[in-house]
Structure formats: structure tokens, C-alpha cells
Amino acid sequence: MTKYEKLFEPVTFSNGVKAQNRFMLAPMCDDSAENGQVTEQQLEYMKTRAANVGIAVTGYAYVNDSGDQVPGQLSVAHDKDINGLAKLATVMKAGGAKAILQLSHAGCGAGGSVAKGYRVYAPSKLSFPWLDYDVDEMTTADIEQVIRDYAQATKRAIAAGFDGIEIHNCNHDLLQQFFSASANHRNDEWGGSREKRMALPLAIQRAVKKVIAESGNANFILGWRISPQEKHGDEIGYDVDDMFAQTKKVAELGIDYLNISLNLSADYSNSVRPSYDVKVKGTDKSFPEYYRAALRGYCPIYIGSNVLTADDALAAVTDAEGVYVGRELLMDPDFVQKIAEDRPEEIVNTTTIEKLKAVGLPDGFVDNYADKDGSTRVVSYRNGIPLPGLD
Ligand SMILES: Cc1cc2nc3c(=O)[nH]c(=O)nc-3n(C[C@H](O)[C@H](O)[C@H](O)COP(=O)(O)O)c2cc1C
Fold first, then answer.
1. Is 381 within a domain?
2. How many Cα atoms are found within 13 Å in the side-chain-facing hemisphere of 335?
3. Which residues lie in coiled coils (predicted)?
4. What value does the mean pLDDT take over residues 50-63?
5. What's the domain count of the chain?
């Protein structure tokens, strides 16, 4: 019995399926797929990172060819992707973790699609200064197609043997763009009021739930990831109350866990303090305490960000059922094992490019996230440098 015993209790999802402990490998795109296909390097990496967690989530996989954010991202847009994804699911499950495929569409941020010559679209015609390509306003037919694409992607995840999917309703992807008053200027059934701006995420949820129900696999897990708030200086895309309202609707339809991404906004992130410790603005409640009221009945909540030590992880599960761990697991693949064996002082939480290569990080991670000066941007929160591309 160690001080960290609580981290090794199972987490029960809403559908009754259990994760073997409270750790989640946070979804992290490793920029290392080849034309969307899983590579050997990714399989090797996943084998070690998923080995000891309760639930392992892949980096975001694009559901159609217009939704690819970065070169090296995984694809779940075609049937030909299933074979590679099946290998990925197999290595992710080898140590007992539940293997989850994260589904996404980058909307206006689909730079990877631009590079391949695909059309890029978003709820409205957007021309942000940082976009050097045209973004079309989606037609009704585009919207209906995207909903079908999420359904198809879910079928592929099931065929590949994943234990579940997680919908990437966060980090500025297409679903968030629809919910954001800054990005969505439509006046039809898909935009305008808050209710209408949440219509696309909810339609996608309905579509993927239908596929899951029709598969007959009652154990298939539906996870849902949110960014609680979107702000651009003084301009508000949506506020915490808006996302709370959306989550209430989502919970009514039914999800198996809620993953609250806490790294993104100035109001609740902090470059030195673990983000889980931050209260929802204007309240004395932590994010899990606050969000619990939005959930219908029992649904486990995962939080995290800036979790570097065993004590950070333990503190996160005072309010939440589970804790996601991203960059720390990049640096130290044995993070969970060391806590399980009561060796927390052996956890590695500084790194260098050489060390990252030595712990089997795929090239894309090292090339795009490691600071060329010697330390690395994967530990940037200690140095106050924001994560690239994540707001
Ligand atoms: C290299 C990298 C890639 C990421 N890719 C994704 C992604 O594909 N989907 C997602 O939801 N979050 C993504 N994130 C965010 C992480 O899931 C996590 O929220 C963030 O890294 C903060 O947690 P940490 O401090 O434990 O790393 C990414 C983060 C990093 C560092």
C-alpha cells in the first residue's frame, strides 16, 4: 500500500467498462504517419507509452481528406487505413489499456490538406492573417458529408479493433469552429444562436452513437474532449457557460467519459502550476467539480496538463476520476510504472533531444516539438514557452 494507491484504482466508464487504472495517455499527434498510414516507429512508440496506463488515446485522426491539420497526422478517412490502425490498436491494448482512436476534422486549420491539394472549408469563409490559403464556407451538403464521415470513421475504428473513439471537440478543430461565435457567422440551422452553433457537434454525436449501437458492441467507449472556453484577446468565441450548456446536451445524449483539455486558455492555464488546480473563473470550483453538474448521472472526468510528478497525478484525482498525461510520458515512458512501484523519485522530468531519441520518440515529435537549442519544447511549460499550435 503506497501513498499513490488511489491512482491504481480502476475507472468505470458510463457503459460499465473498466479501465485498469486512472492514467490516460493524452492524445498527442506525433507527426510521424506516412500519408496518414501508421508506421513501424509509431507502433514501437505506442507499445511503450500505452503499456501501463488505463486508457490510451491516439493523436487526432482526420475523418476526411479536407480535415488533415498537419503532415504526419493519422488518417481514418479511408478503408485502406484500417489495417495499419488495427496494428496500432493491438499494440495499444497489449498491456491492458483501453485503446481509443481520436477522431477529428481540422476545418479552417487543415494545412495538411492544403499541402495535398484538397479543398479546405469551415463554417464560414474565414481569412485569418495566419492562413495563407482560401477557406470556403461549407455548404449544407458539405456539413451532411462530414457527419457521414464521422460515422464511417467510427465504423473503421470498430473494424480496426479499437475499444472506443474520442471526439476531438476542442483545440480549434471544425467542431469547435462551429461552436465559436468568432468562427461561425452562419444564419442557417448550423449557426447563429448558441443552440444552433452546437448543432454540428450534437449531430456528429448522434451519428457516431447510431453506428456504435448498430455494431452491437455495448462495450465500445465514446469519449468526448472539450476545450472549456475560447477567447481571442477580448473577443469571446464561447465562454465557460456556453461549453457547460453544450456538455449538458452531450451528456443527455450519452458519453462514456469526458476529457477536459485544460492547457489552452489564458483564464485557466498557468505555465508553472498544474492546470488542474485552477478554478473556473468567478467560482470556487475546480473544473471537474463544475462540470459534474452538467453530466447526467455518472460519467468519469479526465483532467490534466502539466502533470510531471506522482504528486501532480495524485492531486488531479482528488476531483477527477482520471488524469491525462502527455509530455511527461514522452519524456519518461516508465512514469506510471515508477509510481506503481513507489519509485517516484526516479521519474525523469527534464530532457534533451538526445534523451528523447533514446526513449523512442518518433522523428516527427523530435523534429517539431523539440527545441533546437538543446532543452525541449515538450517541457516548455517549465520555461514558460507556449505549446506551438495549441493556442
Ligand atoms: C506534441 C503534442 C501533440 C498533441 N496532439 C494532440 C492531439 O492530437 N489531440 C488532442 O486532443 N490534444 C493534443 N495535444 C494536447 C495534449 O493532449 C495535452 O492536452 C497537452 O499536451 C497538455 O498535457 P501535458 O502537460 O500532460 O502534456 C498535443 C500535445 C502535444 C505536446
1. no
2. 30
3. none
4. 98
5. 1
